[in-house]
């Protein structure tokens, strides 16, 4: 597999890949798989009839990784891709996804990735997904990810979902259903700038006793960008849920935070927090007393906030 | 050397000009530890903020090492060697203690080097170095991290605005040691502390008393301190109580 400079730059940004990954992987570029490898415990199979892959992770698979990054380097590419993860019981795996679009042309490029996770009993999954756009073309970089997580008893899933920068338009939809004792932890980070639009909608259903979810979304809206964060937890059992939308607004940015809780069981304990504000002046002053310029201080504060 | 010449600062108070500092002049030579004391509302913190550039004076001049810095920004003054420890430390979501110490030092630090600054303020470094400087830390912990960040600056002039505020007695004893160590380590540099704690006043070379925005008294510690004992300008412990004799001696 030969990767060109643009592909390598995008892969480095979205998945920290500088070489062919170890373990199972599927690297997709401009609507084609340019490299695929299964491992003894993880089987990657292309879907038939539609774009995408099925990833089968055997029960008891421990400390293995799956990389499935996507890059688009041509202007005007539009695709919808279905990736399904079937994670057996008692597994412990790390999944690295992400999509980078470099668009130097006048046509919009778009990747809609639909990821479905079926997490087996007692399994642990750490999932990282980064989105990034680059290129000087007038064509948009559009990403509309759909993430569905179905968690069996006592499973654990930790998801880090980050939009680094350069994504003009995104509609992110995340749905999760948790059975008894399952736990979902989400850390979302969203950066929008220029006239970008981002919408992120979560619906997390805690269906089993002892299930829990901790959903934290941090966003920075700069320039004339717009973000809408719609985080909903539904408590249908004796469960614990927490959502947090925390946003920094800058320039002419606009942010709408819509945290929602729905309790359908008297033993459901649900909390939401939401805060929007500009960078505190005292934070800038503190970093300026350390010798940073105002712009450098601002960058440090944002980088820390979106870490 | 820091020279403050006829410095005044006023704010708008419901359409009326309110003077916070009035015609204050002061000279702080290199290698000296000055403590500014005086009753609350006397203008002590304002003076420190004017020196650091956080506030701009309405009149007067600030000269640092022979250069007029009155119109320089906070950043420019920091780069020229002025450090400022906040009375109320600032919290940051996401920025870790290690980041803050690295930014303060102005260069990449090994974890070991960053930890050394935390150890100086009595924090077990490995427990703190990767923690966020946010509301999960107690006021005392934040205060010590604030002081560690200023130590990492290794500045020509370091301003501490009420360094004892919000810390417990143990930390307070430790703080005195930090200032003593600083004195040994930086013979050509100066320290200016805003405080009315007698034990901090006791380690000063010179004491300045600010009252109602004016310089009321200035002189060597032995000349000034006796007049202040028992007043609001020289209290003895963190809670403002006189300590038993045994503790005064430590």
Helix/strand layout:
The complex is a heterodimer of chains A (307) and B (250).
Chain A: H1 5-15, E1 24-29, E2 32-37, E3 42-46, E4 52-57, E5 62-67, E6 70-72, E7 78-87, E8 92-96, E9 99-102, E10 109-119, E11 124-134, E12 141-143, E13 146-151, E14 156-165, E15 169-178, E16 183-192, E17 197-206, E18 212-221, E19 226-235, E20 240-249, E21 254-263, E22 269-277, H2 281-288, H3 294-305
Parallel strand pairs in A: 1-5, 1-6, 4-7, 5-8, 6-9, 7-10, 8-11, 9-11, 10-12, 10-13, 11-14, 12-15, 13-15, 14-16, 15-17, 16-18, 17-19, 18-20, 19-21, 20-22
Antiparallel strand pairs in A: 1-2, 3-4
Helix pairs in contact in A: 2-3
Chain B: E1 2-13, E2 16-28, E3 33-37, H1 44-52, E4 59-64, E5 67-68, H2 74-80, E6 82-85, H3 97-105, H4 111-120, H5 125-128, H6 139-151, E7 157-161, H7 169-185, E8 190-194, H8 198-201, E9 206-211, E10 214-220, H9 221-228, H10 245-249
Parallel strand pairs in B: 3-8, 3-9, 6-7, 7-8
Antiparallel strand pairs in B: 1-2, 1-4, 4-5, 9-10
Helix pairs in contact in B: 3-6
Provide a concise account of the structure shown:
The complex is a heterodimer of chains A (307) and B (250). With 307 residues, chain A is mainly β.
